[in-house]
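tool_log.txt
---
The assistant was asked to compare two proteins side by side. It first ran the structure predictor on the initial sequence, then on the second. Raw inputs and outputs are pasted verbatim so the downstream comparison step can read them without reformatting.
(1)
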Amino acid sequence: MSQDDQNPSFKDGLIGALPIVLGYLPIAFSFGVAAVRAGLSPLEAVGLSVIIYAGASQFLALALIVGNAPLLVAAFTLIAMNLRHVLYGPALMKRAGRGASRRWAALWAFSLTDEVFGAALGGLARGRRFSEAYMFGLGVAAYAAWVAGTALGALAGGGALEGWPVLDAALGFMLPALFLALLLSILSRAQLPVIGVAGLVTVAVTLAVSPTSGILAGMLAGALVGLLRRAPDAA
């Protein structure tokens, strides 16, 4: 193993984030266009990306704003949809080991989106040593791409994608596709039951209730199956 593999640098994180950047730019552009189309100013659109920084939740926020949803309802809906992010930091640090540095965790943890978490976890699964510098590089590149893409879309205006309906529809699948690709890169046979149950429960509850409920139910089901599978080993 090389020195770079042993101590991944900020530059390594920037390079590792390239697939995420390529996925984020068009989606964020689409959000910027949609936000202006919904009546937000370019500054407000960029502000949502700077503060919320969560793709699906930002599109949901637009729907809630356009639908004049009460503030508390909108806030609790967005919080519920993003509860999974609370689990990312502990899961990553558990995989990194007790000796991994946590000095700046409060800062780089802000960037733990689905895709950044998947990329970081995938690196650890392939033997890369945990590094806070690497996490900063990974997170900064992804965050900058999302905010920049939003700004470009907002400045382009609400009608930027009207002449490209197929492209407008396809952009909605890019984030799930990117996360699926990252997930498949670290998939092992032992994880299949957990992922299978989580996926089935998510789809079932989404169809029966709502996407937000489906995500939460899938998370809980996957976590429960994982705990049950580990229980015999602990015993």
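(2)
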Amino acid sequence: MTSIASYVLLVFPVAMAFAAANDLFTMKIPNRIPLALLAGFAVVALLSRMPLEVFGTNIAIGIAVLAVTFALFAFNLLGGGDAKLVAAGALWIGAEHIFDYLVLITIFGGLLSVAILAYRKWVPAAVVATPHWANRLHTEKGPIPYGIAIAAAGLAVFPSTSLFLSLVS
């Protein structure tokens, strides 16, 4: 693997980790993160000599996922940043593992939601000294930093993707 490919390959895990941390601490995923994933994907597609059909399929998957996640956003079931992050991650995951990615997002999102609901119920906000971001998690019926689940799913699936394997071999 060339050194430039090594650096570009880091775009996905670093962006996903940054998105998860940012969502936890601020309840926002800045647009620059999905944009970095989009740009990184284009560079990685060139470096890996991705066939045009595969590139087109990944783009189509990303657009389809964006359409579905924006519908969820329109019904207030998912945040806008989460919608963009899922779609940008789908570009990197590709057709072979998109189902795994989406299923893991759902599973990790459910586990995250249960953990935060338990935190709200069993960790008293007024008794325990916690930072502002942790206090925000106590908001009854407040948002869940779903970017954590999206990032966890992406990081779990990415090492088995054709894109990743093409650059590490």
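---
observation on (2): The mean pLDDT is 92. The chain has nine helices and no strands.
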